[in-house]
Design brief:
- This protein is an alpha+beta fold.
- It is 49% helix and 20% strand.
- A three-stranded antiparallel beta sheet has the order 1-2-3, covered by helices on one side.
- Strand 4 (142-144) and strand 5 form a beta hairpin.
- The N and C termini lie far apart (92 Å).
Amino acid sequence: MKRKGRYIVEAACLVPGICMLLVYLVFFTLYAHDYAVCIHTVLETGMKGCYPDGRTDRQVREEVEQELSQKLSGRLLWLQDKTVEVKVDPVRIRIRVSGTGSFIPVNGIEVQQTIYKVQPCETVRRSRWLLNKDKNPDNKKEEISIDGGSKDENTI
């Protein structure tokens, strides 16, 4: 008994299956990348927008929408038709980014985050302190706290 065709039949079944698996792995990687980029960008932009610096809610909404659109346009690999919605009220900022791509059979990506304006992130406070330090070089009553942030003796 000769079994010459046995390996050809097995290869004909396995090779397309392995190729499809690799293609879906690449597509899943693109989807996961864009999802992570959307979440990170929404949180980063939301934290900048929630800092209380005297802007009106309308100005904050416009700046957050513009910054999100600008940042997402250069970072996304799969997501093509994106929609950015920002709702700002005195207590929180709600940001929703959704969209679809063209070649993965998935409904799309939808990221929705709520950022409260109560206590902004320490990083934002430090960066605002650095910006204000450059604007006001005469303020010499500043001290550095243990965690690296800034404490001004004139403010509470």
